[in-house]
């Protein structure tokens, strides 16, 4: 009888331990979901997967009509002006033949106040920030208050499939890392320029050139691309698979180029692409130091 009593006691302890483990696991998963899909601006991944309302459809139709006016037109526009003359052709060995732009060549910076919106029918851009449960969403909410920011979980997330469902909603998509601080006026100028030319293959960021493929990929800390490039990617007959050891940013840059070539065998990379090489003095990675300010960001800062 004593042995049975001991076994029964052990069984009760085992069941209690099991229930405790299950409870902790459920709480963790719930917190992880809440942290990774925190929403502001237009919301998180939930917004990306939801249906389209009548108002949104009306907005999209208007958006298509506005941008189609200049479709298949080589003219580059900014604030209603023709700025095609600021496009330069690379002459160095690494970037020879590539078309590129420097935002500093545009004299007037965009105003961030024009981008402040919480009305999902007005935003024509989206800034995607991957975060993990270890990242502080409070920081993101306050740092980029007023911008249309979407947060996604930085692990096994379906951002590729979900973002394609937004077509033709956004004129510009920005991918921004958690540990980045960027000059908001500079960010606004970039969004205005790319938003005025959604039908062009414009790719913004800090370039990484791959000599073997002769393709430029933008550094993953921050990059942006127009709707035309998103259409290339989402209409790809076979999206290139990721390889062990290849970083997300390099894979994405190559995937964009390969997808455009799959759709049109006569696609000419140098002629079709316009790169905006980022001004790294406007972007701070992992740390920022200024007057009475010393800021460190990221898990490994």
UniProtKB/TrEMBL annotation:
Keywords from the named record: Membrane, Transmembrane, Transmembrane helix
Top-rank lineage group of the source organism: Eukaryota
Membrane-traversing stretches: 12-31
Annotated protein name in UniProt: Uncharacterized protein
Higher taxonomy: Eukaryota, Fungi, Fungi incertae sedis, Zoopagomycota, Kickxellomycotina
């Amino acid at each position: 009888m004593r042995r049975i009593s001991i076994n029964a006691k052990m069984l009760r302890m085992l069941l209690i331990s099991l229930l405790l483990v299950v409870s902790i696991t459920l709480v963790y998963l719930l917190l992880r979901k809440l942290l990774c899909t925190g929403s502001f601006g237009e919301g998180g991944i939930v917004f990306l997967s939801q249906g389209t309302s009548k108002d949104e459809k009306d907005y999209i139709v208007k958006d298509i009509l506005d941008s189609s006016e200049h479709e298949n037109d080589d003219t580059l526009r900014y604030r209603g002006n023709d700025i095609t003359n600021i496009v330069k052709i690379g002459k160095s060995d690494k970037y020879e033949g590539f078309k590129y732009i420097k935002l500093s060549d545009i004299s007037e910076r965009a105003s961030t106040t024009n981008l402040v919106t919480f009305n999902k029918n007005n935003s024509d851009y989206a800034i995607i920030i991957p975060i993990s449960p270890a990242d502080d969403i409070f920081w993101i909410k306050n740092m980029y208050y007023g911008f249309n920011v979407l947060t996604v979980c930085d692990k096994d997330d379906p951002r590729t499939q979900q973002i394609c469902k937004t077509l033709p909603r956004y004129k510009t998509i920005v991918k921004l890392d958690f540990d980045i601080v960027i000059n908001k006026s500079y960010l606004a100028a970039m969004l205005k320029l790319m938003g005025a030319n959604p039908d062009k293959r414009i790719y913004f960021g800090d370039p990484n050139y791959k000599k073997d493929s002769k393709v430029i990929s933008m550094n993953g800390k921050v990059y942006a691309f127009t709707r035309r490039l998103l259409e290339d990617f989402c209409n790809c007959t076979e999206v290139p698979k990721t390889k062990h050891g290849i970083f997300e940013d390099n894979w994405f840059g190559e995937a964009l180029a390969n997808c455009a070539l799959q759709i049109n065998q006569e696609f000419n990379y140098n002629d079709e692409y316009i790169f905006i090489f980022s001004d790294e003095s406007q972007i701070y990675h992992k740390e920022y130091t200024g007057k009475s300010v010393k800021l460190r960001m990221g898990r490994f800062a």
